[in-house]
């Protein structure tokens, strides 16, 4: 028995649980469980109770599931694939529980909406035609640093290719002992490079999307809404650059470990520290900014104007499907950041690319 899997579980999954439990409190004041409401309705007593109920049920179920997983890891066989299967099964169960809770509360919210205080429809619409010209994100030129690191890793590996053993370690057990090898080949040696390229391209796309995604301006206070939006996009752009940089470094460490340029006792702590930094950064940014800039520059006045949103274009309040919308990226209603418009043909090509990459990596 080793304590390392438990430590990894705590660092990786506890922040995720905290985020899921807290989500109703991080959401915009115009969205409640995927349904459009007014700020007055959002702060009404029925919705306050719904948020408390959601947090209580979600925290209870996720805590029970997490403790069961920890117990299974402690008493599992660390020299087999059992622990890996435990973590995979736990991850899937966590996603399923979260989906069931969110969908059930979405329908509960829709049935409660007619009984809430009446929200008037807005008589005006605010549009900021120059928001793309604002300082709302870092330039993609910053990703040239990632390219440089990847090129240096490739050159280093090619120069030291003969030093790589015929059997390359590709998996470690919970005691950090090698329990799976792969035959030396260009495909296995440069798999970390493929991941670096994929991560760089993915985050370039994400950073580009931050500039391109359509803006939602609240008509009751458009100036504050514009400032919130610009700050939100800029801070998440910084995160995209930083997180992708750390992940590119992580895969460089993996490659250098193959050719014994890094000691295993030095490489493992670096990898764990990088993962912890990315998770903590994302968690801190989420609680600071909220969902869709909801926690930035909050107004003391609550409007009873119900914003115009396309509720009928959102499936279960979380999946956006609108073939008539030319935008590929939209702000999420559940969760933090941006998501895909599944009515756009390119969204399916995106997921096809993810599936192909997973098959290749496997």
State the main characteristics:
single chain, 362 residues, mainly alpha, two-stranded antiparallel ribbon, two-stranded antiparallel sheet, 10 helices, 8 strands, 58% helix, globular, DUF1648 domain-containing protein, transmembrane, membrane, DUF1648
Report on the architecture of this protein:
The protein has 362 residues and is mainly α. The protein is built from 10 helices and 8 strands. Residues 323-348 form the DUF5808 domain. Residues 148-195 form the DUF1648 domain. Pfam families: DUF1648 (PF07853), DUF5808 (PF19124).
User: How many E-type strands?
Assistant: 8
The residue fraction in helices comes out at: 55-70%
**Low-pLDDT segments:** none
Overall pLDDT score = 78
Order of helices and strands: HEEHHHHEEHHHHEEEEH
Strand content: 5-15%
| Alpha plus pi helix count | 10
Question: Which radius of gyration do the C-alpha atoms yield?
Answer: 23 Å
Tertiary shape: globular
First and last CA, distance: 28 Å
Helix/strand-derived class? mainly alpha
Order of the strands making up the biggest sheet: 1-2
Largest sheet geometry: 2 strands, antiparallel
Question: Outline of this structure?
Answer:
This protein has helices spanning 4-26, 39-42, 45-75, 82-112, 144-159, 186-189, 191-212, 222-258, 264-289, 345-361, and strands at residues 31-32, 35-36, 167-172, 178-183, 314-315, 319-320, 329-331, 338-340. The protein is mainly alpha-helical and 362 residues long.
